[in-house]
Amino acid sequence: MGAQLHTGLSRLRRARGLSQAELAARAGISRQALFALESGRSEPKAGVALRLARELGVGLEELFWLADEAPLVAELSQTVTAGRGPRRTRKAPQGGLRVSLAEVGGRLVAHPLPADDPGALFTAADGLLPGAAAPVRAGSAVRVWPLRSRRAICENLLAAGCDPALAMLAARLPDRSAGARLAWVHKGSMAALQALARGHAHLAGTHLRDEASGEFNVPAVHALFPGRAMLLVNLSRWEQGLAVARGNPLGLRRGEDLAAKGVRLVNREPGAGARALLDRLLRGAGILPRTVAGYDRIVQGHLAVAAWVASGGADAGISTRAAALAHGLSFVPLEEERFDLVLPRESADDPRIGRLLDTLRSKALRRELGTLPGYSADRSGELVAEVAARGAFA
After folding, report:
1. CATH number at 5-66
2. How far apart are the C-alpha atoms of 24 and 18, rounded to whole Å?
3. Long-range contacts of 280-285 (CB under 8 A, 24+ apart)
4. How does pLDDT run along the chain (394 residues), one tens digit per residue?
5. Helix or strand or coil: residue 218?
């Protein structure tokens, strides 16, 4: 017996806003025939399959596929360097670069989960991307061997952000969502918003403070999504400050302390909320970044900053209280920040988004978030702002 034929026909049709009758008419078949194809009761003839793929604007392999180890075609979210994993092959690789997968706006998107990213190291992957002899650029179509069923992958919600508490939200979501899961991709605030703007994520987590207004997140969202209605839903508020060695032996408390002789810093990538806070701290003290030892030493994520300080590789770095305490460090608070989840207004009608927001508002999650050092969950799940084409209102 041959491998079973699977289809994404119904899902793709709904994503395009088409009724069965409309798509059937465009493809030149009856509504009953389309229903039989969507339900898996019949298999398409070549001409019908080609017309359906054309009308839906997808390749045949995204519309119909065989079960087991048939590769998927996805759009790569970021450039992958050469030599990551085994070379390209027609068979499923034994190794490879792990990726999270999700369908966003009718496109299958692949997000690398690099082994050198602590936030991604033990995230369950959806597929494996074989290596290549040359770098593969962001936006390229790549073949990915799935580790889960295509149906399950296409039910994924994908959130980009830097708050490790997203893993907590992801762990609780399956209890409420009949199989769909939240895949967390670790990115700094600006990178997360840019991924959302490119159609590479369903949600973005951010904690960017606007210097002119002092407002969190709304100005950045308004600038990146002109003419598009966006919602900002609070995940938490947290304390961010300096992670330092236990007891703070160097007495580091202010911006000018970071430029003292012998003090070594560990930093975050440009666009990260922690990097923005550090830059404000240095500007306020009149210190040029190039005079701070370690300013160009970059790691990914709050936990990575705390781990670097705990290992003795640096004396200080901007992190959250929870990350600092998790590594046995002392913490110097600098400010409380609002971490919001950003999503397009039109996606609020997606049942998966509804289930996620229900989970975020649940007493259990809010109580658990509230136990994390430096976290406040009193507004978790609350709509804190709606950004429209001409402004925002809270």
Report:
1. 1.10.260.40
2. 10
3. 280/209, 280/211, 281/254, 281/255, 281/334, 282/255, 282/258, 284/255, 285/254, 285/255, 285/256, 285/259
4. 345 677 878 888 888 889 999 999 999 999 999 999 988 888 889 899 999 989 988 777 668 766 555 688 899 998 887 554 434 444 444 557 889 999 998 889 999 987 776 666 667 788 888 876 678 888 888 888 888 877 788 888 999 999 989 988 988 875 444 456 888 888 999 999 999 999 999 999 999 999 889 999 999 999 999 888 999 999 999 999 999 999 999 999 999 999 999 999 999 999 999 999 999 999 999 999 999 999 999 998 899 999 999 999 999 999 999 999 999 999 999 999 999 999 999 998 888 899 899 999 999 999 999 999 999 999 999 999 999 865 445 4
5. helix
Q: Give the C-alpha separation, 81 to 240, whole Å.
A: 33
The phi, psi pair for 372, rounded to 5°, reads -75, 135
Q: What is the DSSP string of 2-43?
A: PPPEEE-HHHHHHHTT--HHHHHHHHTS-HHHHHHHHTTSS-
In the block, residue with structure tokens 């702002």: 385
Phi-psi region of 105 (alpha: psi -120 to 50; beta: other; left: phi over 0): left
| Domain layout of the chain by residue ranges | 5-66, 226-394
* CA proximity to 143, closest of 51, 202, 67, 62: 62
Check for a shared fold between 5-66 and 226-394: no
CATH architecture assignment, domain 226-394? 3-Layer(aba) Sandwich (3.40)
Give the amino acid at 355: R
- Phi/psi region, residue 381 (left: phi>0; alpha: psi -120 to 50; beta: rest), is left
Could you give the CA distance from residue 63 to residue 284 in angstroms, rounded to a whole number?
56
